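$ ./design --mode recover --in tokens.txt
reading tokens...
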């Protein structure tokens, strides 16, 4: 019969995984307590929860929440970076953190229900943030409009020059 503490941990993990837009599996071995605290602080700033649980409990929760694809990667010291907002935020934070330290290493990830291996998960850091993408969309929409406004202004200027030339010609 399962112990109540373990059942409670699995329930908490089920809730956390249920709210996830992405889950990054990391190997946190070699990190000091101070480094782990700093990493968690950076994660919290971006609405990412960093969870360290026993692999057995994580396997149970993964199976119950439909994340069976991560079960083979739940070996050794494993931390789960669970994003609730921007699904790519965890990989950016991990890579910014790895500039100062060699750890944590990414084992794999689940992004919007799709499992990606270590290599693909690491490549996700190159995707621009949501704000940058929105800015690019707005500028793509605004560029033709500003071109149209500039073209209309040029036509009006040419019309003005032509009328002014006709006026000067008639005055002579």
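writing sequence...
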């Amino acid at each position: 019969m399962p112990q109540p503490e373990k059942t409670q941990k699995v329930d908490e993990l089920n809730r956390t995984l249920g709210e996830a837009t992405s889950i990054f599996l990391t190997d946190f071995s070699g990190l000091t307590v101070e480094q782990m605290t700093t990493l968690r602080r950076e994660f919290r700033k971006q609405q990412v929860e960093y969870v360290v649980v026993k692999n057995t409990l994580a396997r149970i929760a993964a199976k119950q929440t439909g994340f069976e694809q991560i079960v083979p990667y739940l070996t050794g010291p494993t931390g789960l970076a669970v994003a609730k907002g921007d699904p790519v935020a965890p990989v950016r934070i991990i890579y910014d953190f790895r500039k100062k330290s060699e750890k944590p290493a990414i084992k794999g990830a689940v992004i919007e229900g799709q499992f990606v291996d270590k290599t693909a998960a690491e490549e996700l850091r190159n995707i621009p943030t949501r704000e940058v993408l929105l800015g690019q969309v707005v500028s793509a929409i605004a560029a033709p409009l500003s071109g149209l406004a500039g073209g209309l202004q040029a036509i009006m200027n040419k019309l003005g020059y032509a009328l002014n030339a006709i006026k000067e010609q008639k005055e002579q």
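exit 0
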